[in-house]
Every structure is written in structure tokens, then in C-alpha cells.
Recover the amino acids of this structure.
């Protein structure tokens, strides 16, 4: 996926999910996710993951990148 193709993900993270702490190297992270999970919409899954994060107790720390990768693995198993 080209750099421009990540614009919707980047925009969502920066505007709605600042806790993820987007930084430019994340473009490589999302490229790898697209190769590993080509059948999933990363933006749709990111929005669902964000909603899940908002419902978590705030005192629990979370590695967002690792948790999102695991989220995608589970989404693939449950997607009909």
C-alpha cells in the first residue's frame, strides 16, 4: 500500500485515537498488517478496536500495536 493509502488510517489515529500515539514508522507497521491480513479492512477494524479500547478500564496499560495485531488475528477467525 502506498504512503497515500495510509492517509485514512493516519487521519483517524491523529483525530480520534491519539492514545495510539501515531508516528511515521507506523506506516511500515500498517504495511506489514496489510500483507498479513489482506482480507480485512484495517480502517474498519481500527475503529472497532478503538471502541473496545474506550470500554477498557483506564488504569490498565495496553500496548496498542501488539493488541491491534492480536485483534486482527481474532477478527480473521471470526469473519465469515
Amino acid at each position: 500500500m502506498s504512503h497515500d493509502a495510509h492517509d485514512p488510517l493516519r487521519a483517524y489515529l491523529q483525530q480520534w485515537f491519539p492514545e495510539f500515539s501515531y508516528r511515521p514508522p507506523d506506516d511500515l507497521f500498517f504495511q506489514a498488517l496489510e500483507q498479513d491480513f489482506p482480507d480485512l479492512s484495517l480502517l474498519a477494524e481500527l475503529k472497532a478496536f478503538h471502541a473496545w479500547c474506550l470500554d477498557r478500564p483506564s488504569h490498565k496499560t495496553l500496548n496498542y500495536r501488539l493488541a491491534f495485531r492480536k485483534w486482527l488475528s481474532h477478527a480473521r477467525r471470526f469473519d465469515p
Summary: The helical segments are 7-16, 26-36, 42-54, 64-78. Residues 64-78 form the longest helix (15 residues).
